[in-house]
Q: What sequence folds into this?
């Protein structure tokens, strides 16, 4: 029996089950791992695959295998099913590329994909082959692949140092970590060198010279060791996972968390890889973060691109990526580190001189001082020959020519003023006037123009005021100081104002973003229909990113356009494919991302909680990828839109549910109507008819009564069925209005005639004003309305009480009122009485409760309204209001009348 | 009366309906022939030459309207069509195709007998020159065809020429329904056959003059969706 302490942690068990579940659906990845080209990875992979085919009859397909013209390898490929390659035109060459879509469509059990580190031709779905493999695995296809140790992302630097060859094609460590098996193909370096000599190892011509270093015994030994270690690490992880699964008490490293501080400098790449290695070693999560100081100059686009590349590498290596900004880099960094329980902080070694630190303050120093219990790792950057990235050419340097002219004019003005003043009063120092001009130039026009102003100021002051006057020579050395001051002031002022302006811009941009989000949130809150939400979202996205923007949602598992800005904008089929990918993989895709980056659109999935709702596609008008802060903004926007769409979906569902409930309610009232209202007359008829048939002793009076009852009830039945039919036809929309120009009095009189016998005892007053025109209505249906209203009045008012029908015009409408002197409309039921199956209280002979509903249906079909009210003088009034419906036709003057 | 011995062909597919009509008509002295389908009806017509046809518009094997057209090609036998409520278009089409009148199901036996009497009477008087009548009377209403004068009781009514024409048309077809198209053709001429609002407006005017209470007409009644009828209480 297990001791309680030995029991596996239930959470761990659950996690394991989930992992296994996910793994079962996911294909298995086996990597044939080598330390150098030519060790026989591809050969071994093909061997294993062939064995699986011959021994287990496994469905194996060769996705892509490079035989490098090696006969042994080519021979092994024979007999295996080959997936046709995709032809890609690239700069005039036709490249054979692995065809991912064909592989997904073929869906073999096992697919061989050589060279995991391969970089795909431009225009492929993914930039890297390992991403293709990820997708294959996700689709449940097992994959065999090969790679060399120098392609392992985190070993990249080390190997570059050993071999002096920088390998650009790298595979993230996470891919290796997730591999189900790694088989190391190991041969002795001597043997490899032998094979190289025999020409068995293929080396591309252009790479021959570069690889000469590579194939040196010392190098090979080092690489071999690295490969062995990396494989061992994988095995170690397997063991660890096993221990965890089996509940073996593992010694857990303390809750470590690493934060790597990333910048645009190339040295950051090294920091990232160091962070990844450290995180792998400590088996802890790590964060890569860039910090932008609002006090400094904004980054240039080139820097920003570099920084994004770094962050993407970090992401690929398994880091959580975040971008921070604040007035003080160290403050923001440490603040974040504390909040997120970071235990180690990796930061680059400063490359600038110490003097600069004195002036600006050292970031490193500040971080170390403020770090408290956080360990700081300082790592040196690459000794790259690449120049440190320059700060953005600020606006000041690119000041328009106009500004230079204006600066010159300022100095000219100062000169003029100084000359004029000198004529009037003999002041000793006019340099202050020039200094003022320089300061103004610095404040208004930036550095370049201010320096020009300084130069001009110095020159003109020298020429006109410094003795000897009207020459550039200087007698008194004191003036040199004045000149120096002028330049210093111009420099300091322009720097200061420039910084202020930058901060202001930054603040403005932030404010704008906040304002946009606020406006969006406010607008979204005011609507609850998915279509409106999509329209609003598309409009805002189009504004913010100056792009075409389209919101797609899923209907019947198809992405459909829900809203677009500008209105009517559409996604071309290629971009729709991107959107589909983005939706299916729940990840950003398209322009500027890792997937299908050549597309015109950037597609972001809209997801709220567990439900995927659709995709927001952005097609920037200037066709450039979004900057990282824009992407972050897009992310926020998507989240907000997704939440709103989810809300709309839920409210729609709620509406449906309540509709279903109402339909259900109606069905039951219909049932009761049918069962009660149809059966009652039928029962009377059957009873009366059987009495007549079977009872011979009936008196003639009784017989007469029974016969009368049969006729009566049959008529009632007929009315009921008629109403049900009318209602059904109205609701199903089968009724097409047969409009005609009809005098109102004809329809009223026709209705009165139809109810002649029932209304016989009542006084009916009809007053239709002269100005009531012909109505453009369906006469049969309208007469039905009047019949129903009159029947209703007859049913609910005391016998013999009078009825009134009035009509007049009101602007472009005709108002018709049916007025009675009964008990009026039950309070609160003014609208309900027009609902189907609603019946008023205390009715001697109830109908099915359809008459008024039919009236409403007919009137509304004519674009009119009907309402009921209790008049202040008592009794009910049913008021119909319908549009005139245009100008009635004129009557023939004489017609054919003779 | 001669019409009491008239032979009436009932074309109706519903057995219960046939049973009801047969019972009602037989007990009033008519002889009844029955046909279930349009094809049978044509055979019966040729072999028995009935004086009247009651035709159900909803026959299983064909369109009652087509049958009406077919019969009208060679026979002037009065045809009364039977149809359900809500099928006003069918009724109008049958009437325009030459049927003499219609009855909406369900109908009472009195209605049926009244329609049959009217139709038979019109068939009998068809050959007689209308000029032989000098006056026509309907309740209080009296029309002097010779002097073109109309009286309600003793009061002379002043009708426009169109109203007078309308009234005479209805008087000559008393008890029979007239469709808008028929009225337009007779009064305004064939070119005006679709201007139904002419009829409606002039009928309203005429009613105001001849009816005691125009809003509850007793003489000129509207048949919704079909046309008008001058009630003949005789």
A:
């Amino acid at each position: 029996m297990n001791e309680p302490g030995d029991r596996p942690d239930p959470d761990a068990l659950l996690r394991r089950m989930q992992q296994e579940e996910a793994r079962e659906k996911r294909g298995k990845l086996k990597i044939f791992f080598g330390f150098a080209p030519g060790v026989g990875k591809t050969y071994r992979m093909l061997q294993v695959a062939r064995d699986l085919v011959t021994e287990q009859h496994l469905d194996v397909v060769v996705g892509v295998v490079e035989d490098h013209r090696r006969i042994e390898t080519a021979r092994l490929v024979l007999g295996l099913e080959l997936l046709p390659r995709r032809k890609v035109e690239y700069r005039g060459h036709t490249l054979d590329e692995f065809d991912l879509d064909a592989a997904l469509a073929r869906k073999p059990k096992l697919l061989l994909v050589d060279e995991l580190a391969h970089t795909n031709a431009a225009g492929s779905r993914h930039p890297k082959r390992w991403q293709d493999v990820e997708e294959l695995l996700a689709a449940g296809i097992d994959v065999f692949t090969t790679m060399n140790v120098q392609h392992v992302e985190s070993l990249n630097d080390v190997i570059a140092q050993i071999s002096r060859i920088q390998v650009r094609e790298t595979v993230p460590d996470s891919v290796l970590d997730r591999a189900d098996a790694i088989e190391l193909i190991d041969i002795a370096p001597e043997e490899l060198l032998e094979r190289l000599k025999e020409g068995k190892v293929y080396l591309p011509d252009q790479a021959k010279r570069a690889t000469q270093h590579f194939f040196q015994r010392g190098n090979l030994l080092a690489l071999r060791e690295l490969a062995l270690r990396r494989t061992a690490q994988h095995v170690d992880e397997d063991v660890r996972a096993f221990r965890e699964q089996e509940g073996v008490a593992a010694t857990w490293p303390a809750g470590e968390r690493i934060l790597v501080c990333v910048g645009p400098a190339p040295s950051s790449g090294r920091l990232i890889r160091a962070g990844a290695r450290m995180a792998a070693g400590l088996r802890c999560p790590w964060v890569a973060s860039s910090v932008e100081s609002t006090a400094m100059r904004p980054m240039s686009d080139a820097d920003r691109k570099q920084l994004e590349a770094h962050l993407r590498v970090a992401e690929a290596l398994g880091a959580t990526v975040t971008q921070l900004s604040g007035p003080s880099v160290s403050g923001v960094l440490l603040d974040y580190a504390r909040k997120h329980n970071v235990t180690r902080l990796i930061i680059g070694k400063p490359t600038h001189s110490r003097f600069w630190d004195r002036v600006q303050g050292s970031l490193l120093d500040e971080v170390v001082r403020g770090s408290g219990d956080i360990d700081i790792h300082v790592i040196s950057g690459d000794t790259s020959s690449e120049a440190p990235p320059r700060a953005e050419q600020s606006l000041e340097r690119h000041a328009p020519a106009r500004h230079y002219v204006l600066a010159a004019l300022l100095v000219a003005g100062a000169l003029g003023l100084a000359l004029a003043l000198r004529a009037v009063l003999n002041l000793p120092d006019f340099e202050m006037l020039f200094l003022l001009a320089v300061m103004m130039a610095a404040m208004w026009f930036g550095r370049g123009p201010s320096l020009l102003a300084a130069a001009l100021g110095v020159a003109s002051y020298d020429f006109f005021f410094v003795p000897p006057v009207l020459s550039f020579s200087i007698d008194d050395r004191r003036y040199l100081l004045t000149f120096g001051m002028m330049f210093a002031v111009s420099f300091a002022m322009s720097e200061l104002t420039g910084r202020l302006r930058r901060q202001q811009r930054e603040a403005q941009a932030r404010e704008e973003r906040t304002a946009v989000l606020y406006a969006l949130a406010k607008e979204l809150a005011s609507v609850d229909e998915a279509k409106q939400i999509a329209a609003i979202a598309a409009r805002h996205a189009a504004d913010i990113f100056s792009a075409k923007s389209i919101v797609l949602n899923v209907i019947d598992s198809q992405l459909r356009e829900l809203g677009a800005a500008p209105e009517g904008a559409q996604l071309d089929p290629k971009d729709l494919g991107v959107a589909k990918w983005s939706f299916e993989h729940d990840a950003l895709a398209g322009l500027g991302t890792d997937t299908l980056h050549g597309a015109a659109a950037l597609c972001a999935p809209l997801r709220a909680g567990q439900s995927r709702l659709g995709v927001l596609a952005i097609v920037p008008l200037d066709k450039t990828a979004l900057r990282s802060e824009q992407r972050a903004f897009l992310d926020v926007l998507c989240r907000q839109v997704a939440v709103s769409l989810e809300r709309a979906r839920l409210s729609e569902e709620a509406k449906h549910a309540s509709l279903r409930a109402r339909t259900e309610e109606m069905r039951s009232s219909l049932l009761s109507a049918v069962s009660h209202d149809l059966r009652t007359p039928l029962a009377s008829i059957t009873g009366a008819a059987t009495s007549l048939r079977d009872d011979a002793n009936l008196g003639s009076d009784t017989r007469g009564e029974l016969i009368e009852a049969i006729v009566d009830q049959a008529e009632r039945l007929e009315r009921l069925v008629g109403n049900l039919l009318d209602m059904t036809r109205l609701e199903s929309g089968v009724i097409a209005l047969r409009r005609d120009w009809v005098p109102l009095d004809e329809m009223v009189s026709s209705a009165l005639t139809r109810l002649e016998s029932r209304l016989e005892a009542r006084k009916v007053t009809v007053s239709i004003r002269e100005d009531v025109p012909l109505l453009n209505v369906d006469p049969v249906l309208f007469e039905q309305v009047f019949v129903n209203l009159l029947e209703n009045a007859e049913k609910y008012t005391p016998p013999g009480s009078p009825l009134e029908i009035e009509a007049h015009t009101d602007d472009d409408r005709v108002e018709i009122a049916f007025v009675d002197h009964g008990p009026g409309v039950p309070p609160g039921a003014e609208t309900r009485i027009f609902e189907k199956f609603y019946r008023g209280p205390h009715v001697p002979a109830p109908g099915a409760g359809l008459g008024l509903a039919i009236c409403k249906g007919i009137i509304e079909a004519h674009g009119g309204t009907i309402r009921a009210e209790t008049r202040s003088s008592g009794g009910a009034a049913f008021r119909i209001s319908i549009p005139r419906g245009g100008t009635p036709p004129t009557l023939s003057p004489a017609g054919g009348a003779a | 009366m001669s019409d009491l011995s008239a032979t009436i062909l009932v074309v109706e597919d519903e057995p219960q309906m046939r049973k009801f009509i047969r019972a009602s008509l037989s007990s009033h002295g008519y002889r009844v022939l029955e046909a279930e389908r349009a094809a049978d009806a044509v055979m019966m017509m040729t072999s028995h030459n009935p004086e009247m046809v009651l035709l159900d518009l909803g026959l299983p094997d064909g369109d009652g309207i087509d049958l009406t057209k077919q019969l009208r090609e060679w026979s002037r036998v009065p045809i009364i069509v039977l149809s359900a409520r809500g099928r006003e278009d069918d009724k109008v089409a049958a009437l325009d195709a030459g049927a003499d009148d219609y009855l909406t199901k369900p109908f009472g036996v009195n209605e049926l007998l009244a329609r049959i009497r009217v139709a038979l009477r019109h068939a009998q008087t068809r050959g007689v020159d209308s000029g032989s009548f000098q006056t026509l009377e309907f309740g209080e209403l009296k029309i002097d065809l010779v002097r073109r004068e109309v009286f309600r009781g003793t009061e002379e009514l002043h009708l426009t020429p169109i109203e007078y024409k309308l009234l005479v048309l209805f008087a000559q077809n008393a008890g029979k329904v007239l469709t808008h198209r028929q009225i337009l053709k007779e009064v305004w001429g064939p070119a005006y056959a679709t201007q139904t609002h002419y009829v409606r407006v002039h009928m309203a005017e005429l009613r105001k003059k001849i009816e005691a209470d125009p809003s509850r007409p007793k003489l000129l009644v509207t048949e919704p969706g079909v046309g008008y009828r001058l009630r003949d209480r005789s």
